[in-house]
Amino acid sequence: MSEALWLVVPAAGRGRRMGAQWPKQYLTLAGKPVMAHTLSRLHQAFPTARLCLCLDSDDALFDPAWVPFADWQRVDGGAERADSVAHALAALAGRAGDNEMVLVHDVARPCVSVDDLVRLYEELRHDTVGGLLAAPVADTMKRDDGAGRVAATELRQGLWHAMTPQGFRYGLLCRALATARRQGLAVTDEASAVEALGLAPRLVAGRRDNLKITHPEDLGLAARILSAQHAEGSVNATASCREKR
Ligand code: C5P
Asked: Where is the site Transition state stabilizer (predicted)?
């Protein structure tokens, strides 16, 4: 990785859907906070990247010991996720070049694989627009009528789950978020702001187990995913040792 890479991790959410005592980034997963897992995965993939971490200004739970990056800064989050990301981009002004890559990754996705992170970055490095990790929709999709009944079945062909990281050049991302804000568009990810400029972000197929911890049952699911990934890693390592012998 020769050119500068910037990581923005929005972690200023309150996680109300979890119904837990603490925001979900501070819940314990396999012995450490969700945030520590997420930052560790990012660091394994991009050890020399520079990190901008968005935290609630009242956050008293954060511990800097969880940050493995040498070059990092904390910024205050905003009212919505897009505002938190915009604060991070503003904090990078004068440091990040317009053509440098920014990967935005939700703190609530601790199971993202290092292979997917590296592959995403490699695919986006030469892309003029940028893009995101995503997974094709497997289930039949229903739209509700607002009263708990099916109003319609949506065609799932061509539908993808948008995940993170999402990566775009610094200049383009600043322009996209500023334009979305000016137009009053509510954007829940970076890609939709870029799409609103008339551009088509690249969909990079990622593992389906890049779960976003959102609901109470997700914490147990994430623990099982991490454990399966560790087992998979040791199985793969054993297999490659055998191949080498
Ligand atoms: O609530 P949701 O899961 O959609 O949040 C996605 C990510 O955005 C989480 O990592 C959360 O901490 C972050 N977020 C933020 N600032 C907000 C709201 C959410 O950084 N105001």
From this structure: 17, 24
How many domains does the chain fold into?
A: 1
Question: In this structure, what CATH number is given to the domain that contains residue 235?
Answer: 3.90.550.10
Residue 85 CA, closest ligand 1 atom number: 20
**What proportion of the chain, given as a percentage, has pLDDT over 90?**
88
Ligand 1 centroid from CA 87, angstroms:
13
Containing structural domain, residue 209: 5-140+158-244
pLDDT of residue 19: 77
Residue 242 has pLDDT above 60, yes or no: no
Residue 147 covered by a domain: no
Give yes or no for a cis peptide into 136 (omega within 30° of 0). Answer: no
CB-based pocket (< 6 A), ligand 1? 10-13, 25, 54, 77-81, 84, 106-108, 212, 214
Residue 151 covered by a domain: no
Instruction: Give the ligand 1 atom nearest the CA of 54.
Output: 20
Does the residue 148 lie in any domain? no
Strand order in the sheet with 202-205: 72-76, 50-55, 5-11, 101-104, 160-169, 131-136, 202-205
